[in-house]
Design goal:
Two copies of one chain form a homodimer.
Chain A lengths: L4 H8 L3 H8 L7 H13 L6 H7 L5 E6 L5 H16 L3 E6 L4 H13 L4 E4 L10 H5 L5 E4 L10 E4 L1 H14 L5 E5 L5 H16 L9 E3 L4 H13 L6 E4 L2 H13 L9 E3 L16 E3 L2 H17 L8 E3 L2 E3 L8
Parallel strand pairs in A: 1-2, 1-3, 3-4, 4-5, 5-11, 6-7, 6-8, 8-9
Antiparallel strand pairs in A: 10-12
Helix pairs in contact in A: 1-2, 1-3, 5-12, 8-9, 10-11
Chain B binds a DNA duplex (30 and 30 nucleotides) through helix 2 and helix 4.
Chain lengths: 334, 334
DNA sequence: AATATTTGAATTAACGTTAATCTTGACATA
DNA sequence: TATGTCAAGATTAACGTTAATTCAAATATT
């Protein structure tokens, strides 16, 4: 039989309530009793039942974290940031993967609500044209979208300035004289793609140039996608002198293709990634990229969520973290 | 006010119990009643309280997952495997990070027990000389160690044949004639280091050669460690013609150092990693490495755990997944 | 017609905890 | 002495479920 408060109460002769209060360090208990009960609890290997406790005490100290892909190094950095702050604040994480499906995402949110999470941090699968607006708007607990947003719910997001980031990439490339820039963009249903495309367009606009749609690829974002896209461009005889990538992983594939086609980076082609994943500085040549504060993104998301949990009337507002273009060896500028 | 079974009972005129049975699709309910109650539940936006339910029904359908480092791509692949099988079996994951500390690990296990997890999958921080043997041996729920083991609890582990894997690396290198092999090994407190070192030694033994301890480095396993270790070897004038690494991440750092020192891979130095992370095939040159079935490791761990949960009398036994040396461009052999 | 079975549901008692309200005895105060 | 205060603890009633038991009416069986 499991040791419960009742067991300890019987063993010590005190009431269940007194035992409960001792173990919660509640007041109005003599020191003698407290020591006695605590030692008995220890002796019996008492493990508190957090679920039973949550029945009277609505604070479950649990949050739900839903990511697009647990194995993606971008998300895992973000999740580590969340975990760090959650740990500091005494929260536990229920975790799930939406597999880039809105249905799955909704299902997970419901499941987690059932477990009485006090809030959510979500990396939504679909942002642009999401069908989940109504669903989220009606959620009974606070929620923060990390790194992405859902149309109409922007104020629930912690973002990293995607538009500014991609704009700085294209400002650099266009100013350096490039006129044939391959742009390996991301999936169209996520907000980041939309914002970065916008940044790209603004940079072209600043230079009074119209972007050429033949140079823009919308890709899922895996290494093979980058590899194939560059192969395709080369095979079609599309001339280019620079490649801007939606993420470092695409850049990894792109560089592989360039290498196989005997194109030198950065002499023949300059390449710029996005995200600044750990490995990008160790690539050969090391990858110029836009640094996204992934760990901080997670940490801040949890900070904000905690704020809203403790303060249900607080208004939500978009947080936008700064990004920074980092020059390494895959560009001429250093 | 939250909608509970009571709310629905009042709204429909049936008893709480009847409502409960309808929503659990229990028997002995007329179809008419069932439809009525279900539609009312839907209408009122009823969200079942899984915690309250767990008070009577001991199946919480939750497991605890504790990893050494959430942001490490090796672990995140494993976790994805766990998540996939967990999802299939209807389990949710409570997740935490032991930060390579046994104290933190123990704390997390207790916390999760409090939440009534039905079992654990743990990537323990310390395996060799762990102080947690007694603690784990007394755990009241089944637990599986993924990818590592704790001395005396080997039967709770799903492993990948570390000894065989590293042995195959050294068999290749020694057979190819290398006699000065830098071995960038891992942290001494984890079982993988111990087993791979053993594999290395067996290969040397097969060739009747005594390994030279000046060539063996025990490192934490970050890219900088590999980078520094190779720099150090070069600066000390230690001659070498091959590098075997405890993981791909070390190899990444090692290759960077070789590159900076104008040593060609694989012509001057052959390099072999371990783990076969996604990016290793995209490195320049692509990295020869030992493939570890990371996703499968997680998936199998969850399969086994579920088995033990459903079958408490089942004996634990070590599972050892096969590994395979993959030749790419960082070795002469292809 | 008397009895047994079946169906559909209500009642009751938990699960382990916590919060609110009582109780008791010791001591202090006027 | 009568009354008040306080400390230390006990009692009771929840929280939202589920399982076991009970009940009443309808139907079937002899």
């Amino acid at each position: 039989m499991r040791t419960t408060l009742k067991t300890i109460a019987k063993a010590t002769g005190f009431s269940i309530n007194t035992v409960s209060r001792v173990l919660r360090n509640d007041t109005r208990i003599s020191n003698e009793t407290s020591v006695l009960i605590k030692s008995k609890a220890e002796e019996l290997g008492y493990i508190p039942d957090a679920l039973a406790s949550s029945m009277r005490n609505p604070r479950t100290k649990t949050i739900g974290v839903i990511s697009a892909d647990l194995s993606n190094p971008f998300f895992s950095e973000v999740i580590k940031g969340i975990e760090e702050k959650a740990e500091e604040s005494g929260y536990q994480m229920l975790m799930g993967n939406n597999e880039e499906s809105e249905e799955k995402e909704k299902h997970l949110v419901k499941l987690f609500l059932s477990r009485k999470v006090e809030g959510f941090i979500i990396m939504p699968s679909h942002g642009k044209g999401s069908s989940l607006y109504d669903f989220y708007a009606a959620l009974p607990v606070p929620y923060i979208f990390a790194g992405r947003y859902i149309d109409g719910l922007e104020n629930h997001s912690v973002l990293h300035n995607d538009e500014e980031g991609e704009k700085s990439v294209f400002e650099y490339l266009l100013s350096a004289g490039h006129r044939n820039i391959l742009y390996l963009s991301g999936p169209e249903h996520i907000s980041n793609t939309f914002d970065r495309d916008m940044g790209m367009r603004k940079a072209y606009e600043n230079h009074s140039i119209a972007p050429d749609s033949r140079y823009i690829f919308h890709l899922p974002g895996h290494p093979e996608d980058g590899y194939q896209a560059v192969n395709t461009a080369i095979n079609k005889g599309l001339p280019f002198t620079a490649i801007a990538c939606f993420n470092d992983i695409l850049a990894m594939g792109a560089m592989k293709s360039l290498q196989e086609n005997d194109l030198s980076v950065p002499r023949d082609v300059e390449v710029i990634g996005y995200d600044n994943l750990l490995f990008s500085q160790f690539m050969q040549p090391s990858l110029s990229t836009v640094d996204v504060p992934k760990h901080r993104l997670g940490y801040v998301a949890m900070e904000i969520l905690e704020n809203h949990i403790n303060n249900p009337d607080l208004d939500f507002r978009t947080e936008n973290l700064p990004v920074r273009l980092i020059f390494r060896d895959s560009t001429q500028e250093r």
